[in-house]
Design goal:
Blueprint lengths: L11 H9 L4 H14 L1 H7 L11 H10 L10 H10 L1
Helix pairs in contact: 1-2, 2-3, 4-5
């Protein structure tokens, strides 16, 4: 479960499946709670479009990491930055 003082998972089964697929705790909790609130099909349809991370420059990737509040990104190479962003 996520490391928060009061973790609340509304769909623990989906959370466990997402974690076993390799998603982060935060992402798994966010998706499972949204699915419980709005329905799984609604969450799947809601997904937006995103640029391909491989098409972005290193400064753009670093800016995105900064926007997300990640740390330790300044010395990373492009493929490491992409992995960091995808794991978040």
């Amino acid at each position: 479960m996520p490391n928060s003082p009061t973790p609340r998972l509304r769909d623990p089964e989906l959370y466990d499946r997402l974690r076993s697929e390799g998603n982060s705790e935060e992402k798994s909790a966010r998706i499972s709670n949204a699915a419980a609130r709005d329905g799984r099909s609604a969450v799947g349809k809601r997904g937006g479009s995103a640029d391909n991370l491989e098409d972005r420059t290193v400064p753009e990737l670093r800016n995105r990491a900064r926007e997300l509040g990640l740390s330790g990104y300044s010395g990373k190479r492009k493929n490491e930055l992409i992995a960091l962003l995808r794991e978040h």
